[in-house]
UniProtKB/TrEMBL annotation:
It catalyses: L-glutamyl-tRNA(Gln) + L-glutamine + ATP + H2O = L-glutaminyl-tRNA(Gln) + L-glutamate + ADP + phosphate + H(+); L-aspartyl-tRNA(Asn) + L-glutamine + ATP + H2O = L-asparaginyl-tRNA(Asn) + L-glutamate + ADP + phosphate + 2 H(+). This is Aspartyl/glutamyl-tRNA(Asn/Gln) amidotransferase subunit B. One of its GO terms (biological process) is translation. It comes from candidate division WWE3 bacterium CG08_land_8_20_14_0_20_43_13. Its EC number is 6.3.5.-. Belongs to the GatB/GatE family. GatB subfamily. It holds the Pfam family GatB_Yqey. Heterotrimer of A, B and C subunits.
Amino acid sequence: MSTLDKNNNLVPIIGLEVHVELGTKTKMFCGCLADHFNKEPNTQVCPVCLGLPGALPVPNEQALLYAIKVGLALNCRVNNYSYFERKNYFYPDLPKGYQISQYKKPLCVNGFLEVADYETGELFKVRVNRAHQEEDTAKLVHFPEKTLIDFNRSGVPLLEIVTEPDFSSPDQVVSYLKELQLIIRSIGVSSADMEKGSMRLEANISLGASLKSGAARDRSNLPDYRVEIKNINSFRFVKKALDYEIDRQKELLASGQEVTQETRGYNEKTGQTFAQRGKEEAHDYRYFPEPDIPPLFFSQERVEEIKNSLPELPAQKRLRYQKDYDLDFKQSSVLTQNPLWGDFFSQLIAQKVEPREAAKIVINRPEVTSSDPIRIAEQVRKKKNDLISDRDVLTRYIHDAIKDLPKVVQDYQAGKESALQALIGHVMGKTKGKADPRVIVEVLKEVLGAGH
């Protein structure tokens, strides 16, 4: 529990635990099919994922390789020696009474991700504490008078990615989650679909004093409590849940009350968080090494081989678009969000379409990505050939615009750059949209700069 001095400058302190279902064909420790979405309940189960006595787990190698790929994409160090542990707790969705997970020796540790704010493009750094392999639980289906359990999800490979408490706003959290989802999809290890539950998150949040610029959060400057919000399943609800919880904690602390360390859920209908249970600590789970699974060893050569197999990551692609094609941050971000859009953009470039024009086509008309890029490129060239680009002809239209819009001219000459758009629009209207905008801008600036 905690109370804080009202004079403190309180800021949100947020850390994340993101769970990603890895897209393997079979489950983590048995041969049952892993794709459980919309399947008949309890039809993809066996003694291993039902936790029956005597059933022995065998690790899924593909899941381990996928986990390492994610860790490397997040700049983590891969532990050459790792092992599984039993995480002991009782809950109806856990058939064995424990979860096979990792604690002391996770697969990947000490990473980071530089995230660009999706609105401003400004970079901020998030430290990744660990990425460890575990198995998913069964799914509880609640009815008014009873709760049923579907074990199809039990044992599905799950990667938990744990950050340090480096977020200071819900917007930063959303930007990180979007970037993480892009990375996971780009390396092909999961659909990371939040609506289907293949990417879920838990946020740990408290309020504390702000730090000096450049200082990092550690145990010495963290509040003595934290509240966990579990299983949020959309970017929109992440922001709403965190906004609500920040306001709730501020009100408690401002009135001199304590904030209880606890686990809370989020009600999507009311937009409020609600208490579920007390918050557990690591020692509550009584971790100990899984006796039925031998330790894992990965040579440095194998790790390098996996690293070299990584495709171009979203941040690298954005930078390439900006550097090679002179696109701005928002254009490069939109093209990176969907592989089809990026591929179609590249195909238009290959057809000699000017990069900014190609970007504009894909962003404004994403439906064209299902068309033939050669045909679209031909349409662009035909339209360009139809444009009026004769400077003498356009100069006459420009002089008419200057005569018709004297106030706009005054605004531009007074330093209002946006006034130029009104003059361009006037010329485009008179030419029925057939004037070359680039030539209009060139001639306008020459004429207005000459004092006409």
